[in-house]
Amino acid sequence: TADDNLAGTLEPGATSPSARFEAMRKLAKAGILTGVTMMPILPFLEDDLENIRQIVRTAADCGASYIIPAFGMTLRSGSREYYYQELDHLDPGVKEKYLQAFGDSYQCSAPNWRQLDEVFQEEISNGNIRLKIPVFAPE
Fold it and tell me: What is the pLDDT of residues 43-78, one digit of tens each?
């Protein structure tokens, strides 16, 4: 997410998205290749179209050369239980959505991943962002 408040809830203690994007801006300005590994996109928490637009637009504004997306997440046994426990603290209704949508599945793709990808493709077509890390070619 590019939302500092949501990120603070999901990743307490981690560097905020705005600080990460500012670091990207400085690195890109210095000529260093930068980009975003846009994953995971947590189903039912981060999988809204505006979030994807905001990430892509902000990354583009900060000089990103690439974005590698994955519209969903994986949940292994053990980590699934911990994740669900944390979801209960955040919003008990979200855990039920996960259980109904994914059960014990390892792969948890956002139910609206096609729409997310459509918006993503539309947004990256407006700029010079690639879908893979460019190969380094020294001058």
Answer: 999 999 999 999 999 999 999 999 999 999 999 999
- Find out whether 134 and 70 touch, Cβ atoms under 8 Å: no
47 by DSSP, 3-state: which? coil
3-class DSSP state of 108: strand
Q: What is the pTM of this model?
A: 0.92
CB 124 within 8 A of CB 131: yes
Distance between CA atoms of 14 and 136, rounded to whole angstroms?
29
Cα 95 from chain centre = 19
Domain ranges of the chain: 4-72+112-124
